[in-house]
Amino acid sequence: MSATTTGNGTYVGQSLRRKEDPRLITGQGSYVDDVNLPGQLWAAWVRSPEAHAKITSIDTSAAKERPGVVAVYTNADLDMEAGLPMAWVPPGVEVNTPDHWVLAKDAVKHVGDPVALVVGTSRYSVVDAAEDVIVEYDPLPVVTDPEAAIAGGPFVHEQFGTNKVCDWSLGGGDLEKGFAEADVILERRIVNHRMAGAAIEPRGVLAQHRAGKLTVWSSTQVPHFLRLFLTILLGIPEDRVRVIAPEVGGGFGSKLNIYAEEVGCAWASIKLRRPVKWIETRSEGMMVTHHGRDQINYVKIGAKRDGTLTAWHTRILADLGAYQMLLTPLIPPLSAFVMSGVYNTPAVQTDVTGVMTNKFATDAIRGAGRPEATHTIEVMMDQLAQELGMDGLELRRKNFIPPFENGHETAMGIVYDSGNYVAALDKLLEHIDPAEVRQEAEGLREKGVYRGIGFSTYTEICGNAPSRAVGPSAFGLQGGGWESATVRVHASGSVTLYTGTSPHGQGHETGFAQIVADRLGIDPSMVEVIHGDTDTGPWGLDTYGSRSLAVGGEAAARTAKKVADKATQIVAHQLEAAPEDIELRDGKWSVRGSPDRGMTLAEVAGAAYIPENLPEGMEPGLDEQTFYDPENFVFPFGAHACVVDIDAETGKVKVVRWVAVDDCGPAINPLLIDGQVHGGITHGIGQALYERIEYDESGQLVTGTFVDYALPTAAELPSYETDRTETRSPVNTLGVKGVGEAGTIAATPAVLNAVLDALRPLGVTYIDMPLSPMRIWEAIQDAKGKAGAPA
Amino acid sequence: MSKTVPVRLQVNGVEHAIDVEPRLLLVHAIRENLGLTGTHVGCDTSNCGACTVHLDGRAVKSCTVLAVQADGASVTTIEGMGTEDDLHPLQEAFWNDHGLQCGYCTPGMIMAAAGLLADNPNPTEAEVRKGLEGNLCRCTGYHNIVKAVLDASKSKGATVGQSEVTA
Question: Do the interacting molecules here have an ipTM over 0.90?
Answer without folding.
Answer: yes
